[in-house]
Specification:
There is one protein chain. By secondary structure, the chain is an all-alpha fold. It folds into two domains: 37 residues; 76 residues, no CATH class. The protein is built from five helices and no strands. α2 crosses α5, α3 packs across α5 and α4 crosses α5. The longest helix is centred in the first third of the chain and has 36 residues. The protein starts with a helix and ends with a helix.
């Protein structure tokens, strides 16, 4: 009886020590998943803008969007700022020259067509 009681106490103690570590791991995994969900690719950003998902933030849709891109009224930085305000991108994206270049390249291709 004493042996089984000591074994039970040992198991319960071990579970108590392991639980905080498991909880921390679970939280960090959930944080990573959240960040991935809130990230939008350069192509998807331009496509969403064209489709009118940012009309409420002053970005026109469809033909007006294309016209604004052609007249340089909409640039990569503008779209990134709107996406940041909608929590689709982090603020650091404004400093990411590679991301901005990709968005601008897609906008330039719209301008050519």
């Amino acid at each position: 009886m004493k042996l089984s009681l000591m074994v039970a106490i040992s198991i319960i103690s071990a579970m108590g020590v392991a639980s905080p570590t498991f909880a921390q791991t679970k939280v960090s995994i959930n944080s990573e998943m959240t960040r991935k969900v809130l990230t939008i690719t350069p192509y998807d950003l331009v496509t969403a803008s064209y489709q009118g998902r940012f009309v409420g933030q002053g970005i026109p849709s469809a033909g007006r969007f294309t016209s604004a891109v052609r007249s340089n009224r909409i640039k990569a930085e503008d779209l990134v700022k709107v996406a940041i305000s909608q929590r689709r991108l982090s603020i650091e994206t404004l400093e990411d020259r590679g991301y901005l270049y990709k968005v601008q390249s897609i906008l330039d291709n719209l301008d050519r067509n």
